[in-house]
Known about the structure:
Blueprint: H1 2-25, E1 29-31, H2 47-51, E2 54-60, E3 69-73, E4 79-87, H3 91-107, E5 112-114, E6 125-136, E7 141-152, E8 155-167, H4 173-196
Parallel strand pairs: 1-4, 2-5, 2-6
Antiparallel strand pairs: 3-4, 6-7, 7-8
Amino acid sequence: MQTSYYFPLLWLISLSLLTACSSSKNRTHFYSLSSVAEVAELKQESAYLSTLSLGVGPVHIPRLLRRPQLVLRKDATEVELVEMHQWGGSLREDISNTLSRNLSILANSNHIETYPWKHNNQPDFHIRVKIERLDGDLGKTVTLKAHWSLLKRNKLLKTEYSTINVRSKGNGYNAYVAAQSEAIYKLSQIMFTHLHH
């Protein structure tokens, strides 16, 4: 009698474990960019920059990146939209906020705003950004291409085109998003250099 009791119990436990594993594999994962600026970067601060206000935006991204899914680039013409791995919010806003946080740390300034800002509270400088590409393949290289302009009170000071390549430090999606975050940080450094000089 005991044997006949244990077999159904074991079967139910096995079924529960299989269902749990299946649910975990089918769960959608969500991601966001992060600021990777280190506190050590504060060594680059200047009294001049810390007193100025800086605006970031508007930030434009291509239609391909306006989707919730992470985008992988297989080759020059083929991309893959990963349904089970998505952005937790708007990638455009995420890029804008990450640039702002990075620049705030690099410049040691709390006077960093993201677009839009109030008409009567325009920053001393602002940076317009047009992302052309922010993708790559798992375990390989992430590429960021961006046009950006530095303005002082709406007067154009310079326009730049930056291409940044970052090697992913792992084969998974977390490493892929971390590489994208690092690419955004490197772009922030380039922008800061132009502000600093």
